[in-house]
Every structure is written in C-alpha cells, then in structure tokens.
Write a structure and sequence with these properties.
This protein is of the alpha+beta class and 217 residues long. The chain is built from eight helices and seven strands; from the N terminus they run H-H-H-E-E-E-E-H-E-E-H-E-H-H-H.
Length: 217
C-alpha cells in the first residue's frame, strides 16, 4: 500500500467558481497595475535586477523554473515591449531553451537584493543568435551563445508580502549553509552514493568550486 499523500476528493477545488468563492474580489488596484509594456519604473526595476527566475512549459505541460543571474543591468531592454536575457554557461540540460522552442509562453520574476517588491513579466520568447545583440551582452570578452528575447504581454509589480513573511533579506534569519550537505554530496547521496572518506569528499567539492570559476562565463 502506497504511503503517498492523497488529496481528499471532497476537499479538491475543481473549478474557478469554487476557487473565487473562497476569496474577496480582486482589488481594483491589482487590476489597474497590469500593463502591456514596460513603463519608466518597470524599466528602472529591470536595470537594477541582478537576478530573475524564468518559468517555462514543455508541450505536455510539464513546468520548469530556472534562475538567471548576472551583474545588475544584464537584461537588455530593446524597446518598451521587448527584452533580451543572455544565456550563460550552465549544466547543458537546456530545459528552459528546449521548452521555449516548443512553447514560447514564459513567466519572469525579477528580484533586487533588499527589495521586498518583485516585478512579474509574462510574455512570448524566442531564441536569438544575432551577433550584434550578443555582443552587447559580452562579459570579459566572452559572448553568450544565444539570447532569450521576450516580447511583453503583461508586466506588473508584485506586492511585498511573500518576502516580508519569509524575512528573506533579514540578517537575523540567515541560515548556516553548513547545516546541509554540499551540492556534490547531495547529488551523490541521492544517486550513486557519496564517498565515506572526508578528504575525498572535500576534493570533489573543491573540484566543483574550481569548475565554477573556470566556466562562469
């Protein structure tokens, strides 16, 4: 018998009418704030943001979300309705990029350290290898292989409640990374098994850190 949690069908929300009956009507300001292009403040927010998450889906509807980060200003604003995101070296799973080819709908969340507000952007993406565009995104002379070009469908500022509830930027709530295993040990423990020898494990961690330094751009 499976120990997996099963949702009680008597308590499943099955349609939008049931869902909306649980909540107050949408606030008028929440409706008005949604725009179809990047205004002056949205553009300023994007230029300040060193980090974003991009959500995509494959043709079967399987969802994925991926982080993207660089120095502030790394996202290029091409016009009030178009942005471009450089694709830096990663693990070459290519989940986001493959999904975009199959389904261009994307959702972006821009985050600025110290800001409790976030900027949400939904749109349609394409992958571009335009040399002139990629050259604008070069770091230390290294040009990305491609850029994710997104046409804006809607953009709006998201309220601060989630970040305030989580105390994300509050130094008193910072957690000690050493309380959980390293990335290498995490992966090995869940797959082939991590080595028991501490020196061997430390070497694997050091090798990963050196790989980060070599392949950042």
């Amino acid at each position: 018998m499976s120990n997996r949690y099963q949702v009680d069908p008597d308590h499943v929300i099955g349609d939008e009418a049931q869902l909306r009956a649980l909540f107050e009507p949408t606030h008028a300001l929440a409706l008005r704030k949604c725009q179809s292009q990047l205004g002056v403040h949205a553009q300023a927010f994007i230029r300040r943001a060193p980090f974003l998450c991009i959500g995509t889906q494959n043709p079967e509807g399987k969802a994925d979300v991926s982080p993207r980060g660089d120095p502030a200003g790394f996202v290029q604003i091409l016009d009030p309705q178009t942005i471009a995101i450089p694709d830096r070296p990663g693990n070459n799973r290519l989940d986001t990029l493959s999904n975009i080819i199959a389904n261009p709908a994307v959702g972006l969340l821009f985050i600025i350290p110290g800001f409790d507000d976030t900027l949400r952007l939904n749109g349609r993406a394409q992958l571009s290898t335009d040399p002139a565009l990629l050259q604008r995104m070069a770091v230390d002379g290294k040009v990305p292989k491609l850029a994710i070009v997104v046409v804006v469908d809607e953009v709006f500022l998201h309220c601060a409640k989630a970040f305030r509830r989580s105390h994300l930027w509050d130094p008193d709530y910072l957690q000690d990374r050493r309380e959980m295993p390293s990335l290498m040990k995490f992966i090995l423990d869940e797959t082939s098994g991590a080595p028991n020898d501490a020196d061997e494990m430390r070497k694997l961690d050091d090798d990963l850190e050196q790989a980060y330094q070599r392949t950042m751009y």
